[in-house]
Amino acid sequence: MFKQDLCNLCGDCLVECQWIDADRDQAIEWMRLMIAGETTPALQQCITCYSCNEICPQHANPFDLLASLQEKYRVFISEEAAFAEEAKYHFTRELTGYPQAETVMTVCAFEKTHAHLIQGELYELPRVGGKPYNCWMLFSHWGAESVQRKHVQEMVDRLALTGVDEVVCFHDDCYAVLAGLAPEFGIKVPFRPVHLAEHLVRHLQVNSHRIKPLDIDIAYQRPCASRHTPEKEHFIDELFELVGARRVERVYDRKQAMCCASIMLLLGNGDPRPYQEKNILDAKQNGARAIVCLCPMCIGNLSQVAAEHDMPLVFLGDIARMALGEIEPLHT
Ligand code: SF4
Ligand code: SF4
Q1: CA 62 to ligand 1: nearest atom
Q2: Same domain, 106 and 63
Q3: CA gap 49, 263 in Å, rounded
């Protein structure tokens, strides 16, 4: 939720945005108008990367203001289309067949779409996934954020049916919802959400005697949803250290990270390719031999441009598997 009382109209959110074209005066004026509930060109230029929520020095959540206005003015998706999409994703039957366990992994839709990434000892946990456990993040990208807010309680309740103490989130979006957004929405989460990076670190620490250091310079592709939970970022660095991967310093990393930009296609917001190219070249020019991606969607969306620049993309979980000798290390 946008915290208007914290906003001092500094304009940083829109000035530092990688996608919106506004100088300081323009940014302040647009923020003033949007706080008054009015529309501005920022609503259309925004690609919903969530970065400004992390950029705002006052923690006022400016993206949440834009998101509510994108929905109010139906900037990206009509009410009818949002309703039709919501119906497609909504699980309405009685839920059966869920495991009872202390820890489960929620794999979202990736068990169907990216089963090859969920293999080996790191994933030997009872799993849940599919429609009943949808985190609805797509709708906050799409200018229909109220649809997500409406369904997060269902997601939490269904996960809680497993009786778990911990839910390991395969996808960063699910973690962002459980650890970041649900508490903000006033939803009590009766288990501990565990980020994939934390899960990998814990497993590697227990099995540290088996690690074969990868000895490689890599760049990290930080996904959009990570903006909701920056407090877990230290697990990414701990993981790289454990597997012997050196994270190169580059422009588009950490707070300045550039998302995979493919959401531009969904929003009709232009061609993501020039941005993807800048991102890949930034990694390459700063000495990375591969880009490690936390989000499987980033891998798919960046794959063509990365291939053109001879830059391998590797899933975060796979570098842990490489270090454990489960799969072949990168030959770069
Ligand atoms: S939301 Fe934050 S960054 Fe944006 S104008 Fe307000 S205080 Fe500044
Ligand atoms: S969500 Fe991203 S694109 Fe939209 S205003 Fe914030 S920083 Fe800019």
Answers
A1: 1
A2: no
A3: 8
Q: Are 183 and 293 in contact (CB under 8 A)?
A: no
Which residue among 31, 39, 66, 262 has the greatest number of ligand 2 atoms within 8 angstroms of its CB, and so is best to mutate? 66
For residue 120, give its domain range.
Answer: 80-196
Ligand 2 atom with the smallest distance to the CA of 47 is 3
Considering the domain architecture, whether residues 220 and 160 belong to the same structural domain is answered as no
Nearest CA to ligand 2 atom 4: 46
**191 and 216, same domain (yes or no):** no
pTM flag (> 0.85) = yes
Tens digits of pLDDT across the chain (332 residues): 999 999 999 999 999 999 999 999 999 999 999 999 999 999 999 999 999 999 999 999 999 999 999 999 999 999 999 999 999 999 999 999 999 999 999 999 999 999 999 999 999 999 999 999 999 999 999 999 999 999 999 999 999 999 999 999 999 999 999 999 999 999 999 999 999 999 999 999 999 999 999 999 999 999 999 999 999 999 999 999 999 999 999 999 999 999 999 999 999 999 999 999 999 999 999 999 999 999 999 999 999 999 999 999 999 999 999 999 999 998 76
User: What is the C-alpha separation between 171 and 187, in angstroms, rounded?
Assistant: 20
CA distance 133 to 162: 12
- 332 in any annotated domain: no
